[in-house]
Model the fold of this input.
Amino acid sequence: MSIPLVLTFDIGTQSARAILVNPSGDIVLKAQKKFNPPYFSKNPNWAEQKPDFYWDAISEVSLALKSRAGELWNDIIAVTSTTIRDSSICVDKNGEPLRNMILWLDKRETSGKRPLPKSREAAFRAVGVREAIEIQRKVAACNWIMEYEPDIWARTHKFIFLSGYITFKLSGRLVDSTANMIGHIPFDCKSKKWQEPSDLARCLFDIEPEKLIDLIEPGDLIGGITKEASERTGIAVGMPIIATGSDKGCETLGLSVTTPNKAAISFGTTATVQITTSDYVEPLRFMPAYPAVLRDHYNPEIQIYRGYWLISWFKQEFAHKEVEQAAQLGVAPEELLNARLREIPAGCDGLMLQPYFTPGVAMPKAKGSVIGFSDVHTRIHIYRSIIEGLNFALMDGLYNLEKRSKTKIECLYLAGGGSQSDEICQITANMFGLPVYRIQTYEACGLGSSIVAFVSKGVFKDYDEALESMVHIKDVFSPDMEEHKIYKDLYSDIFKKVFKKLEPLYKKYKK
Done:
């Protein structure tokens, strides 16, 4: 008797993957295409990609998977996709892109000349978010296109995310999941609907209502694979396509973080800490909790924008030796670097890094910093300070989530590239003073997306049953509480105070 499989496409910043998942949570087969380069820049701070770059990539990995699957390909019962967030496309009435996609990494800005309505500006100023609001308006792709490419905007039928475009290419329908609506758009995360004209924040991203995509819920049937999509991907015509959600949201579900006493930490290009709640809880004041992939739930999240991107930066600037050695040994440079983390004691002999390399709503004038240099420090100290600095920032986020949700976090589940390192997992357990769990697969995002389809198709009666069958703890890292005390003191006495001390200096910088 055949075992049902779900085919999931996972489009990240660095690669696209197609995976076949079974009801036990096993990755039966996988095909991957790495992006080199992941984007191009016509101007400084721009990050664009041709929209069909991603469609071509998943078509390629789908056909590669089919060629290896044999009879297993006939056991597929549904298709899902999950993608990076806040990556925007303008399409015409036929769903054809009108310009290149603007990726979430893009840092272009509008001129800021278009004023806010006076009543709204006064309201934002009264609650102390006027500056942060202006930053969000300036970096919004929709606002930039309206200002600098008005002809494109006039021809735009729908302003959509990558998730909606992939859904369109697979199904022929211009719809998207509410759990994908995370970015610079006029979306009410609490009600999971488009904002009304009367909503206070509607003026931030003033997209005409007719240009907004139709929304459905995670677990809903989008439609079936079209004939054109079948020819490109090798998937049977009419195969059901199930709506899921964003990469981070699927990852949190795939880690089995469905109750607020657990936290999901993603060591990805952007580092995040998320919890799942049934009540709407803002992670920071005036910051939305995102709609979860788990229906009728939310994911309050704290984000470190330039998260494990810092590792790529370190490799490029400081780790030429390890990069060369790794090439000779046929391993990743991170393996060599992570092994050397053991050489450096907790606290990096007094070196501390603040990873706020990119401004955000809570820190509109943020800059990165490294303090405490002395003659004992080496480049490996800098490497460990990156790991510790990111964790300090995530600790700060987790403590805030605990306070806002009135829940004590009891354990951590890790995903993302950094989670593959035993050394980083152990440092994380020690810093947070909590047990750290690593599940059976690195593909937590794709696993979470496939779980939605298995529940939707009735293979499991509910998510609890699905998670019990499909998510398995592989490794447990217990905290060293003596080291945790060192880190807790460093967090309270130094890390927590650095930003406020440096903020007046950051404000003096123009860029």
Residues 5-243 form a domain with the Nucleotidyltransferase; domain 5 fold (CATH 3.30.420.40). The chain has a mean pLDDT of 94. Residues 379-405 form the longest helix (27 residues).
